[in-house]
Amino acid sequence: MNLPFSLADFLNVFKDYNHSVFPLHIVFYLIAFLCIYLLFTGNKNTTRIISITLAFLWLWMGIVYHIIFFSAINKLAYVFGGFFILQGIMFAGCGLIRKKISFEYTKSIYNYIGIIFLLYALIIYPVLGYKLGHAYPYSPTFGLPCPTTIFTFGILLFANKKMPIHLLVIPLLWSIIGFTAALNLTIYEDIGLIVAGVTGFILLMIGNRKFKSGKE
Hints:
Layout: H1 7-21, H2 24-41, H3 46-69, H4 77-97, H5 109-131, H6 145-156, H7 166-184, H8 191-213
């Protein structure tokens, strides 16, 4: 893949973004850990809060990262931003209005794999990035597309009923697009992105069949 920007250009976008939005990174982490806490406590507002969080994060990535920052080096960012905004709207619609999604900890293999994805997105990803030479602020922090897509698949694996397929298409496509670009740019921590995207999608499809057949 021939990219219209260099690695230095790409990392400088992270620097500009991180300097501009700090200290919102801390807020994003607190919200993420709140969602995880709610999954394990069975709070009646778990699904609502998680849906709001996912909707906000995807809208944020679409508007703030892609359209405001990434578009400076890649005009396709406007297209990416549009799809991310659409994803945020779909999370809001399915989770808050139509109530088509629901989350809880059920001690299933899906949950355990989801936990691995969540840990990777929030802890392992930045540590691995640092070890690979992508230290802050030249790093994709949580709230940016790649780690947040991994986080999204981790959360979705806590679904306790059939997951609407249309909610998975954009995150899956981004896991492929983002990984391909990152591989060209030697951002190897994004190997976790393609693993989470493909594995998460397959598991959720298997889970949908089980929910449909009444096995879970």
